Amino acid sequence: MFKKILIANRGEIALRIIRTCREMGIRTVAVYSTADRESLHVKFADEAVCIGKPAGADSYLNIPNIIAAAEITNADAIHPGYGFLAENARFAEICGQNGIKFIGPTPDQIRSMGDKITAKETMIKAGVPVVPGGGGLLESVEQAKSIAKEVGYPVILKATAGGGGKGMRVVWTEEELERNYNMAKTEAAAAFKNDGVYMEKFVEEPRHIEIQVAGDSYGTVCHLSERDCSIQRRHQKLVEESPSPFMTPELRKAMGEAAKKAAGAIGYESVGTIEFLVDKHRNFYFMEMNTRIQVEHCVTEEVTNFDLIKEQILIAAGEKISGLDYEPTMHAIECRINAEDPYNDFRPSPGKITTLHTPGGHGIRVDSHVYAGYTIPPYYDSMIAKIIAVARTREEAINTMSRALSEYVIEGVKTTIPFHQQLMKDENFRKGNFTTKFLESFKMK
Ligand code: MV4
Questions:
Q1: What value does the CA radius of gyration of the chain take, rounded to a whole number of Å?
Q2: C-alpha 210 – ligand 1 centre gap (Å)
Q3: What SS3 class is residue 300?
Q4: Confidence tier at 163 by pLDDT (50, 70, 90)
Q5: What does the alpha-carbon distance between residue 126 and residue 285 come to, in Å, rounded to a whole number?
Q6: What residue owns the CA closest to ligand 1's atom 20?
Q7: Threshold 0.85, pTM exceeds
Q8: What b/e readout covers 380-419, taking b as 16+ CB neighbours within 10 angstroms?
Q9: Over the stretch 185-198, which tens digit does the pLDDT of each residue have?
Q10: Considering only Cβ atoms within 10 Å of each terminal Cβ, which end of the chain, N or C, has fewer?
Q11: Secondary-structure percent of the chain, ordered helix, strand, coil, rounded to 5
Q12: Which of 123, 198, 203 to mutate to test the pocket of ligand 1 (most atoms within 8 A of CB)?
């Protein structure tokens, strides 16, 4: 087992990883930017190293500085968390070249899912359902038009180097295709330094349901059921839950098997997520694979009783997994508390937290790095806490969440707490009646 893990991240996920390491008897090294000197992850780790100025590029994305911090502290592994360098194949490679274990998949596995056209081709070969459409790289507007004619409008253009919704364009008629094709290519080139785009049939009003998987270095893969992440705003998830209110035992079995095929096809060795679009007829289609631990991993932990960070570390250290699949035994809902103003287009609201009262009690877990007197820096993600409610039924979990939200006091900055309070009362949300379009028409009172 590793003796010392460096956590190449900040915020709640850095703290989350430190907690598991302490339980496992593994020493921890925090790294931090000059904006994060007062952050809890710095205080909770056994050692801490400053790695640069506030901007991500100067600190949490600065590979030489992070490797140097691992060398001087003698860390034998690096946990990347999510975001920053978590899906950077080059970083995983450099860790290996320096004799440091990257806690995650291999560089090749990251690469094979990073390019979306390659990933889709791999899934087709593996027998995983994908959205119908041209498939490969589009070579010209003429080719795009002829594929769209075959597939039928509406279609969606996506960047092969994209993901998470960046650089996508929905096209409803042939007249709109040329303009959107050119814009998609320009946007992709600017955002990803790769102007490759591909086409798919546009699935209208889908649900976003993802399957948590785990694979070990002996070729065994298993799944830990689904998370419903349909409650999103501009591709930012706000609420996640497990099980999905749209799930059936048959669909879970089929999606679980497809997810295992997907991970198995690349010999995946770590915990990961297969994202699917699910249409109203419960047809499901592979969208992308996230080769990292995700923000919303906690809902799966609460319903399966696994510590997914521990599993990830054990797999990286060469342990075997059971190979069994796991079904939810409880219902868990997570609300992301962001320092944003839900009454003002979710505008970021960094600054000093003057008062803080964190909820607790039966069925409540709060993962957070903030405290009274903490100043939220403006340089990073605005998420300051995740609140997870767990109960035997969905209705009870929603009631527990409502109760906990009513206890939460955060003063000094605006937060998404009022949004979640109103959502928990929404009739359609309570009925499980929602798709990825739900928040487009949700109005704050
Ligand atoms: C789609 C789609 C409809 N049809 N692909 C958004 C994130 C990225 N992973 C892919 N996304 C979508 N791909 C086809 N063929 C609709 C979306 C989409 C979406 C997906 C999940 C959650 C929220 C979303 C919001 C808008 C669009």
A1: 21
A2: 12
A3: helix
A4: confident
A5: 13
A6: 208
A7: yes
A8: bbbbbbbbbbbbeebeebbbbbebbbeebebebbbbbbeb
A9: 999 999 999 999 99
A10: C
A11: 35, 25, 40
A12: 203
Residues 6+ apart with CB under 8 A from 349: 339, 340, 341, 382, 413, 414, 415
Ligand 1 near 273 CB (within 6 A)? no
Give me the phi and psi of 184, to 5 degrees please. Answer: -60, -40
Q: Give how far the C-alpha of residue 444 lies from the chain's centroid of Cα atoms, to the nearest Å.
A: 26
pLDDT at 167: 79
- The closest residue, in CA terms, to atom 12 on ligand 1 is 165
206 lines ligand 1 (CB under 6 A): yes
Residue 122 structure tokens: 């791999």
Q: Is-contact 212 229, C-beta < 8 A?
A: no
Which residue shows structure tokens 């999606």? 255
Dump pLDDT digits (tens) for 99-145: 999 999 999 999 999 999 999 999 999 999 999 887 799 999 999 99
Q: Which tens digit of pLDDT belongs to each residue from 240-290?
A: 999 999 999 999 999 999 999 999 999 999 999 999 999 999 999 999 999
Atom of ligand 1 nearest to the CA of 275: 9
Q: Which atom of ligand 1 is nearest to the CA of 437?
A: 25
CA dihedral 78, 83, 89, 92 (to 10 degrees): 0
Count of CB atoms situated within 10 Å of the CB of 200:
22
DSSP bridge partners of 338: 383
Active site annotation includes 292: yes
* Dist CA 222 CA 239 (whole Å): 25
Give 186 Cα–ligand 1 centroid separation in angstroms.
20
Burial class (CB in 10 A: 0-12, 13-18, 19+), 95: buried
Cα angle vertex 69, ends 63, 75, to 5°?
Answer: 110
Residue 168 CA, ligand 1 centroid: distance in Å = 8
- Return the residue whose CA atom lies nearest to atom 17 of ligand 1: 165
The two structure tokens encoding residue 208? 């976003």
